């Protein structure tokens, strides 16, 4: 649409102004735009002052986003914790369903929804709030259509898992659970676009309160339905569905009544220009899914090893803990895509670049701290999920591989967020195919099956793939012409 395109070309004209004022929520700062001559290097005091100002801006977005992500992750975490005490088979079924069948829906919808980080972030940076509501509605249309396409994966989960080599007992129970969890798929289709819409405007605290209500409901009712009422896995699925829908409906209510500057109601414009939007959404979906599905493949391959139930349980516990810790850099991913897209949309490329390196530094420090805690608690945290001594021992043996994954995740998500904010999804999708699958999974299979290293060998391959992908993204980010990206 010509109106949409003009918003971004108009933003580039702002670079001619000698001094720009940037406002984000309650924060306000003065920024020098890019110019032909490079400015002299700042003094240490000026540099530290800029770091402090940028840190406050980042945490204004990332802080509540981290809380929201952790709270929403707690929904699955709580379910796995309760179900794990029903036995090793139910825990394995939940792990397979969450990482494989649920992972397909979650990964695709989250990835496709992240296209809004590019569109809404740049529209907000260019001052075109009127376009943001239209963009979100387009994403809803696309994600609901995608959910319908993904429905057969939930319906036929049992046969699919058996076809992938999983045991009959695990496949049957995971297939039954998938049928009950079908409503969560459509909740994701509403939730992810709404979250990106709010994040682009730095309106993230409402998401924290909505998620907190959902988690409180989920924890109490899961205990009642699973243990007191005795519904077991069925009870867990019912409450998980209700909790996700509480989040989806709560966010929409907030948008309709408290985001009137960017939301003007439902519009037929949501069905216009869908081709371009679908293209970016698919590229975003592929980019995110190729990352997320690496661990799905790891769980599937674990099911092909000897003592499959034990291996799946150990991998599920490690993946759950890593997923919990990963919410921190994942929130920095959201913050980096918002900051980069806002600043590029407003014609301030140097600020975008500066923000990236401040975030990378903070994330590395936080993840190193988390790694030390995981290593020290390696014989204790498995008790949250199981009392089986064999599973606990296997998890303890995997802790150093878990630590390596946590350390790599301190940088990689932020660089992916930069790619989303700058609109590089298609290029990164190709990089992910090569790194995660041609290198990571291939090496993992050789180590795990050929050299008989089991789950440790499989995970080693994944770590190598992530390391190569992180290095490539780091080189691309270092060599990026930010002035060209802004224009």
Distance between the termini: 18 Å
Number of strands: 2
Helices and strands: which structural class?
Answer: mainly alpha
**Number of helices, counting only DSSP H or I runs of 4 residues or more:** 18
What fraction of the residues are assigned to beta strands by DSSP?
under 5%
- What sequence of helices (H) and strands (E) makes up the elements? HEEHHHHHHHHHHHHHHHHH
Level of helix content? over 70%
Overall shape: it is globular
Q: How is this structure best described in words?
A:
Belongs to the multi antimicrobial extrusion (MATE) (TC 2.A.66.1) family. This is Protein DETOXIFICATION. The chain crosses the membrane at residues 57-77, 89-109, 139-157, 169-192, 204-226, 233-257, 277-302, 314-334, 354-377, 398-424, 430-451, 458-478. With 487 residues, the chain is mainly alpha-helical. The protein has one domain (44-486). The chain is 79% helix and 2% strand. The protein is built from 18 helices and two strands. It has helices at residues 2-12, 44-84, 88-113, 115-125, 132-155, 157-163, 168-180, 182-200, 205-228, 232-258, 274-302, 308-345, 349-376, 389-408, 412-422, 425-450, 454-478, 482-486; strands at 20-24, 27-31. Strands 1-2 form a two-stranded antiparallel ribbon. Helix 3 packs across helix 7. The longest helix is centred in the N-terminal third of the chain and has 41 residues, at 44-84. It is globular.
The gist of it:
Belongs to the multi antimicrobial extrusion (MATE) (TC 2.A.66.1) family. With 487 residues, the protein is mostly helical. It has 18 helices and two strands.
